[in-house]
Amino acid sequence: LDVITDGNSIAIELRNVSFGYSDNLAIEGISLKISHGDFVALVGPNGSGKSTLVKVILGLVKPSTGSVELMGTPINKFSDWKAIGYVPQISSGLHNQFPITAAEIVSHGSYRGISPFNFWKTPKTPEVQRALEVAGIRDLGDRRIGDLSTGQQQRVLIARALVRQPSLLILDEAIAGIDAQGEELVYRILRDLNAKGVTVLLVSHDIGAVIREANTVACINRTVAFHGKPHDLTQEELTTLYGYPMEVLLHDALHEHR
Ligand code: ADP
Ligand code: MG
């Protein structure tokens, strides 16, 4: 993948961003800069505002305060959405009854929105084939999505996000619900993509794994609690963040990291 960065080194910049669904703010005063080419883990406990922050970055909700820039462009003027790939979480299987193949799902990544007419277009374009290959599921293209394991389905969604060769890939809890082997495969794909210049923003509540994988960690708990290198994250900060000791997790994670 050749990633064009427009000479701008910041992929995402949030300044003082707040958003609430009701009176309570789900995120508050978040300022965060994510550089092109970085591999960032966004971690925090359940309900800490991670998905809300992703929605803000994807322009799905408009922050009540603050500003968002993507690739150096204010989000309301940003139009290069094909440069951003998004992988949602699948917790309990995808389209179990739906007679659709992996390749057909991946081909949907080629379209902006789904129209009833292009929905059924023949899926095996070179771009689709390529995305299947990058996601390590070349041989699964013709399989029905419901017949695949959760880990394989997850890679189908990664392939779908890769069809348009994004320079920024955002995964929201995409690794939840896969077994250890599937998880390692996904991390390997992300490492490869990142080595080729793709910026990765990986949202997770599994702090141990992401600390091993990421170059940068942002911890949020409504506000930004920590932003920096994984090994600078202290146990104290983690305990404050999660409300219980993280000793074992952290020990394992940092042991391998150092
Ligand atoms: P996380 O992804 O870290 O688990 P979320 O961003 O999903 O956190 O949620 C942050 C807060 O916003 C939580 O208190 C949650 O209950 C609330 N929230 C999330 N989505 C909605 C919604 N659609 N409507 C109302 N409240 C929501
Ligand atoms: Mg979430």
Explain this structure.
- This protein has helices at 50-57, 102-107, 126-134, 150-162, 180-195, 207-213, 235-242, 247-257, and strands at residues 10-20, 25-35, 39-43, 65-70, 73-74, 84-87, 168-172, 199-204, 216-221, 223-228.
- It is an alpha/beta fold.
- Strands 6-7-8-3-9-10 form a six-stranded mixed β-sheet, sandwiched between helices. Strands 2-1-4-5 form a four-stranded antiparallel β-sheet, covered by helices on one side.
- A hairpin with a 2-residue loop joins strand 4 (65-70) and strand 5.
- The protein is globular and about 45 Å long.
- The model is unreliable at 113-120 and 247-252 (pLDDT under 50).
- Adenosine-5'-diphosphate binds at residues 21, 26, 44, 46-52.
List bound small molecules: adenosine-5'-diphosphate, magnesium ion
Widest beta sheet: strand line-up? 6-7-8-3-9-10
The ordered string of helix (H) and strand (E) elements is: EEEHEEEHHHEHEHEEHH
Query: What share of the residues lie within helices?
Result: 25-40%
Q: The biggest beta sheet, please?
A: 6 strands, mixed
Number of H- or I-type helical stretches: 8
Kindly report the average pLDDT value: 82
Question: What is the β-strand count?
Answer: 10
Distance between the termini: 30 Å
Rg result:
18 Å
- Dominant shape: globular
Q: What share of the residues does DSSP label as strand, in percent?
A: 15-25%
Class from helix and strand fractions: alpha/beta
Poorly predicted runs: 113-120, 247-252
Characteristics:
258 residues, alpha/beta, 8 helices, globular, binds adenosine-5'-diphosphate, binds magnesium ion
